[in-house]
Design a protein that fits this description.
Strand order of the largest sheet: 4-1-6-8
CATH topology: Immunoglobulin-like
Number of domains: 1
Distance between the termini: 55 Å
Number of strands: 10
Structural class: alpha+beta
Order of helices and strands: HHEEEEEEEEEEH
Radius of gyration: 19 Å
Shape: globular
Largest sheet: 4 strands, mixed
Helix content: 10-25%
């Protein structure tokens, strides 16, 4: 009876660490909202900084009207593919290439509607920012880095 209880206990709880480990290896889906305003100010992505693993998918939700998600030229890791979503539409993007991805809302880019996605283990830094960013976008990136550094 004791052996049977021990085996049953192992079978019901012994595989939990394995299940948790397997979940961390399987691709995840992350959600980013495109908003008109939040606590960080006008025209944010929420969150503004997202850490994911290669193979994970990000679902960009047009929570408020008038927004899209698109890559920023010069802020795509080598081997990565640019994308651009339609205004007012959800888009799902799978990120296979490690590195730092700069994302913008095309109509509100000059107003600073940008975010960073870190794919893999190397965090973003100010060195990842190109020199030709609109001033409001540069400031939003610096604020994001400061809050997440």
């Amino acid at each position: 009876m004791l052996l049977r209880t021990a085996v049953l206990l192992f079978l019901t709880t012994g595989f939990l660490p394995l299940a948790a480990f397997a979940e961390t290896l399987s691709p995840q889906i992350h959600t980013v909202e495109m908003l008109n305003r939040d606590d960080s100010g006008p025209m944010p992505f929420a969150p503004g900084y997202l850490v994911i693993q290669p193979g994970d998918t990000v679902k960009f939700l047009a929570t408020h009207a008038g927004h899209n998600a698109a890559t920023i030229e010069g802020m795509i890791p080598e081997g990565g593919e640019a994308f651009i979503g339609n205004i007012n539409q959800e888009i799902e993007v799978t990120f296979d290439q490690e590195g730092i991805w700069g994302i913008k809302c095309s109509p509100h880019y000059t107003m600073g509607m940008v975010m960073l996605i870190q794919v893999g283990d190397t965090p973003a830094s100010a060195d990842d920012l190109p020199g030709d960013l609109p001033p409001a976008a540069r400031q939003r990136f610096l604020d994001i880095l400061s809050a997440n550094g």
